[in-house]
Specification:
Blueprint: H1 3-24, H2 28-51, H3 61-80, E1 84-86, E2 92-93, H4 98-120, H5 125-144, E3 155-156, H6 171-193, H7 196-206, H8 208-213, H9 218-244, E4 246-247, H10 254-267, H11 274-290, H12 297-311, H13 314-319
Antiparallel strand pairs: 1-2, 3-4
Helix pairs in contact: 1-2, 1-6, 1-11, 2-6, 2-9, 2-10, 2-11, 3-4, 3-5, 3-9, 4-5, 4-9, 7-9, 10-11
Length: 327
């Protein structure tokens, strides 16, 4: 079995083991952390489609994360307050059904990503990074100035949304939902990178001129990857909003974009399970270092630099002697 497959299975197995420990020993806090790790891993996996497979270094994925979260929060708040969202041209009400919320969150993030991708992909390198960051900051400041949904203070909706008869307020049930969504997303990404589209995306990253010479537009392939990346990240944002039962402009900030990128880099760029390992390790270090000092980001930064330099590919690079991502 290839290292990448073993790496991913071990990461997912460890995450499930942590969740099982929290359930067996009645540790709701551990279950909440495991659910948070699953959601962050999903967000990192979304960015990984663009960054790891497409070579698109985006600092604006917090926009899609936040859009997914705001879609979930707005729909839930309208449903619980029995308020109609729109009356024209058609009447639209809120909902507490998670499948519907997930679908709308993914659609919203995907639709917003299209114009952002069209503009950003006209550039490259540092210009691409700065343009994606600028778009995310636009949404961040818009959320701050949106008093209808809490503005700078954010919006609470107190009770989690529902999936059939499942008790989503139960930490174990909620972890299994988040974990299950992550499993489905990883299977989708794994199949995608082995498909014809995945091969075209790899070529668009490595040799766009050659891809264009065989009649395939590199920009269209990269745009499709960017949109898929946004859709997965938007889904993670919806789950994160339900985890906290709260949305705020912080979900759209450049700090969130940076954290999502850290998950990918820490675990290993180009590795299917890289974002899972990165998210789990990030949360673990946050809890351990946070108990030692309130400035835990400083030692975390040092650890990140050491891992990246020693492994030449994050944790996966440290474990894999070949030190190369299997794409």
């Amino acid at each position: 079995m290839r290292f990448d497959s073993v790496f991913t299975l071990c990461a997912m197995g460890a995450l499930l083991a942590v969740g099982a420990y929290g359930y067996l020993f009645d540790e709701p806090f551990v279950l909440t952390l495991a659910a948070k790790a699953s959601i962050f891993a999903l967000a990192g996996s979304g960015l990984h489609i663009a960054l790891g497979y497409g070579g698109l270094v985006s600092l604006g994925h917090a926009a899609f994360f936040g859009i997914g979260g705001y879609a979930a929060g707005i729909l839930a708040s309208h449903a619980r307050n029995y308020e109609v969202m729109l009356t024209w041209p058609v009447e639209i009400s809120g909902t507490t059904s998670l499948p519907i919320i997930w679908l709308i969150s993914m659609l919203a993030a995907g639709l917003v990503s299209i114009p952002i991708g069209l503009v950003s992909l006209r550039t490259g390198g540092a210009y691409f990074i700065m343009i994606t960051l600028a778009f995310a900051q636009m949404f961040y400041y818009f959320a701050i100035s949106w008093p209808a949904y809490g503005g700078e203070d954010g919006l609470s909706f107190y009770v989690r949304n529902s999936v059939g008869d499942l008790q989503t307020m139960n930490p174990w049930i909620w972890f299994l939902i988040c974990y299950g969504v992550l499993v489905v997303a990883l299977i989708f990404i794994g199949l995608m990178r082995r498909s014809r589209f995945g091969l075209a995306l790899a070529m668009a990253k490595e040799n766009p001129v050659r891809l264009a010479n065989i009649g395939v537009s590199p920009r269209k392939v990269l745009l499709a990857a960017f949109v898929l990346s946004a859709i997965v990240t938007g889904l993670a944002g919806a789950l994160y909003a339900d985890l906290n039962r709260f949305i705020s402009p912080a979900m759209l900030s450049w700090h969130m974009s940076g954290e999502i990128m850290v998950f990918v880099i820490l675990g290993g760029v180009g590795r299917l399970g890289g974002a899972v390992v990165g998210a789990c390790l990030y949360i673990l270090l946050e809890q351990v270092l946070g108990g030692i000092t309130e400035y835990w980001q400083l030692p975390l930064g040092v650890i990140l630099i050491v891992i990246v330099l020693m492994g030449s590919g994050g944790v996966a690079g440290l474990l894999d002697r070949k030190g190369k991502a299997h794409v």
